[in-house]
Design goal:
Layout: E1 2-4, E2 7-9, E3 12-14, E4 21-25, E5 32-37, H1 41-58, H2 63-79, H3 81-92, H4 96-103, H5 105-120, E6 124-126, E7 132-137, E8 140-144, H6 150-164, E9 167-171, H7 178-190, E10 197-199, H8 204-213, E11 219-223, H9 226-237, E12 242-246, E13 252-255, H10 261-273, E14 285-289, H11 293-306, H12 325-340, E15 344-347, E16 365-368, H13 375-378, E17 385-391, H14 394-402, E18 409-413, H15 417-426, E19 431-434, H16 458-463, E20 466-471
Parallel strand pairs: 1-5, 8-9, 8-11, 9-10, 11-12, 13-14, 13-18, 14-17, 16-17, 18-19
Antiparallel strand pairs: 2-3, 4-5, 6-7, 7-20, 15-16
The protein binds nicotinamide-adenine-dinucleotide.
């Protein structure tokens, strides 16, 4: 078992202020793979002090100097790529193939996307009224990340902070700290100055809250549940920090009868199950035009039956376990709620899949005849669970799609391009995917309503970490 009890503060791996061990479990075996420390407000103070000191000089580095450091980080990440993928298989349970092709790959994509955006960034511009506008790093940033796409979230926050000249303290999820510690090793090797990047492990209530409340933190960038995002916002309010939030989702996927049903429904079910259903933007509510309803249900049932769970250390397209016992219990409770509320169970259901008594595996599950008022349609399940809901008209589909407190992603499947654009314009969501259009690196990622307020990736992601200063000169004589 790995001993990972130190924190990375001011360019060194240091002992925590107090001994407070937490075991990191492999979700497929339920066995400990590492021991970490849970940090306290004292550790956060030390890390913030280091970041504050480092900002005095790093905040004034040139864009070219920072680009060179990011290019180095990218080369190191690529060299240690397999290690990153294997780490996420071990602590998150992401199957080997998925870990390598998706979970680790996004680390490269976002870093490259930010490097490209940084090259285009205008830090100084003349306004048409003659004033000068300057963009400057906001300062010391507190970054809190979840476990579900762990290095994705780290890259989406750490990279723009470092790119813009900010300094930061990262508190990754206590369930998946090892990929974050590996990322810290890479930043160290890339040669970022001491104190520019710091990492303190810990839970939300202690280390997380200490960061959000800290008077020397200028901005909090948070990704996680809406519940914790609200807590971060409240904790940050007394010191009037900027807070950017990337929160949960319950994304609608509108399937019109004129779509290529076989192709689009198959892909949609698989996308809902990807990463064991633990994606904030997963298409979890499939709204289906009534005239195609039974055909779609038949395709979904077949795809659901063919989906298999399996050992994450094996190559293949199978589904891994959920990350933790807590998530397993939550998902089970929601599957039971679906049955209890009278949805039609097509595939899966409560309990563990046969042969998987150990590990946090759940059965890939599909419900049909779901009403949008049921818990499985309203709450983020965060497991491989799909809810199918019928609709009669385009207007009704839009109304059901928007009838949610979330607004992260939305999906539209139709053979009619005009309709696709018309519907996309009416959906209250930060990202709309039409007929499988993927999210591309460099485009803003983020949501409306209770899915948050930030936009990560590319130019928009950099802007979140910048202050705007206007310089007024006297009128020319
Ligand atoms: P979580 O909110 O429980 O934890 C996320 C992070 O916040 C962890 O590091 C945790 O320690 C910390 N935290 C928890 N309570 C806190 C508090 N009171 N103060 C400060 N920090 C606190 O979420 P999770 O279970 O790790 O992740 C899953 C959630 O993240 C889902 O809701 C998912 O939709 C969301 N998510 C959103 C996006 C997005 O970009 N919109 C991306 C990935 C995940």
């Amino acid at each position: 078992m790995l001993d990972k009890r130190k924190f990375y503060i001011n360019g060194e791996w240091v002992e925590p202020a107090a001994q407070n061990d937490l075991y990191v479990l492999n979700p497929a075996t339920e066995k400990p793979i590492a021991v970490i420390s849970l940090g306290t407000a004292v550790d956060i103070d030390r890390a913030v002090a280091a970041a504050k000191k480092a900002f005095e000089t790093y905040g004034r580095t040139s864009l070219e100097e920072r680009l060179a450091l990011l290019e180095k980080l990218l080369a190191i990440y690529k060299r240690r790529y397999d290690e990153m993928a294997d780490t996420m298989t071990a602590e998150l349970g992401a199957p080997k193939t998925m870990s390598r092709e998706q979970q680790a790959d996004v680390g490269v994509g976002h870093l490259q996307g930010y490097i490209d955006a940084l090259k285009r960034l205008k830090l100084r511009e003349k306004l048409s009224n003659g004033d000068t506008l300057m963009r400057e790093p906001i300062g010391v940033c507190g970054l809190i990340t979840p476990w579900n796409w762990p290095v994705n979230q780290i890259a989406l926050k750490v990279v723009p902070a470092l790119a813009t000249g900010c300094t930061c303290v990262l508190k990754p999820s206590e369930f998946t700290p090892l990929n974050a510690m590996l990322y810290a090793e890479m930043i160290d090797e890339a040669g970022f100055p001491r104190g520019v990047f710091n990492l303190v492990n810990g839970d939300g209530l202690h280390a997380g809250a200490a960061l959000s409340k800290h008077k020397d933190i200028d901005m909090m960038s948070f990704t996680g549940s809406t519940r914790a995002g609200i807590a971060v916002s409240k904790d940050a309010a007394d010191t009037v920090k900027r807070v950017t939030l990337e929160l949960g989702g319950k994304s609608p996927n509108i399937v019109f009868a004129d779509a290529d049903l076989e192709e689009r429904v198959t892909a949609s079910v698989l996308e809902c199950f990807n990463n064991s259903g633990q994606s904030c933007d997963a298409p979890t509510r499939m709204l289906v035009e009534r005239s195609a309803y039974e055909d779609v249900v038949a395709i979904a049932r077949r795809v659901g039956r063919e989906a298999t769970v399996g050992d994450p250390t094996r190559e293949g397209a199978h589904i891994g376990p959920l990350v933790s016992h807590i998530q397993f219990e939550r998902v089970q409770a929601l599957i039971e709620a679906g049955v209890g509320e009278g949805a039609r169970l097509l595939v899966g259901g409560p309990g563990k899949p046969e042969g998987f008594e150990t590990g946090y595996f759940v059965k890939p599950t599909i419900f049909a005849d779901v009403d949008n008022s049921m818990r499985i349609a309203r709450e983020e399940v965060f497991g491989p669970v799909l809810a199918i809901i019928p609709f009669d008209t385009e207007e009704e589909a839009i109304a059901i799609a928007n009838d949610t407190s979330y607004g992260l992603a939305a999906y539209v499947q139709t053979g009619n391009q005009e309709r696709a654009e018309r519907v996309a314009a009416r959906l209250r969501a930060g990202m709309v995917h039409i007929n499988g259009g993927p999210h591309r690196y460099g485009s803003p990622f983020g949501g409306y309503k209770q899915s948050g307020n930030g936009r990560e990736g590319g130019t928009f992601g950099l802007e979140d970490f910048l202050e705007v200063k206007t310089v007024h000169l006297p009128d020319a004589a």
